[in-house]
Amino acid sequence: MLNKTELKSKTLKKIAVLSVITSMFVVGCSNDQRYKREVDSNEDYLNAPALKSLIIPKGVSVPQEVGEYYVINNNVEGAVGKQLDIRPPELTISTIPDAFVVYKNGTVNFNVPVSYGIWNNIPNTLNKQNIQISSSDSTTIKINGAIITRKDEQQPVNASFVLTRQMHGSAETITIVLSALTRGGENLMSQPIEVQRYVVGLFNHIMNDVAPESLWTVPVKDSTDENKKDD
Q1: Parent domain of 182
Q2: Rounded Cα gap, residues 124 and 116, in angstroms
Q3: CB–CB of 161/153 below 8 Å?
Q4: Is the pTM of the predicted complex or chain greater than 0.90?
Q5: CATH (domain of 206)
Q6: Which InterPro entries would you find in this protein's record (predicted)?
């Protein structure tokens, strides 16, 4: 028969082992970000057999073919199942009144009043993101080989940007171009979604940093508006 000391010692050992195993699972889950990009569903359909031609017995009439229900039996090209990235494209979000932004082919063009001081604030924004400026002057900022880590990616990317500024009276046009993008030695510049994700992501970081305080506060409804609605 075990005495109380032996029993307590064995119990503590079991708790210690379970704690280690639990911590391993927690660490594994925290490092694995694939669930943010993958479809979480049954994939048995990927192993479904190919369609066979319909055999029609002699003397049996069949309805006329309708193209609307025709199944094209071609080989699937591209990613399927868990290889398919389900994340939506990154969209430009301008937080500055009287400004507009356009994204096209790896380039963000942003027109904004000079009074907001966006260009002068960009170095501070980049510093917060641990992005080092390679060279800069009053009209150009160059970033070479910045290491950018996203929470929904397993590996960081190596990205290079060129930011330029053009003055138009009381407004300025800021252009952000992604000039290089690699991950683990793989060149991602030929993947439009990846290019958009990082050049637009940088723009949105800049916008988040200069957004007016009023945009971060939920407006309080005026009681008089509710009364008018009731009336």
Answers
A1: 100-214
A2: 14
A3: no
A4: no
A5: 3.30.530.50
A6: NlpB/DapX (IPR010653)
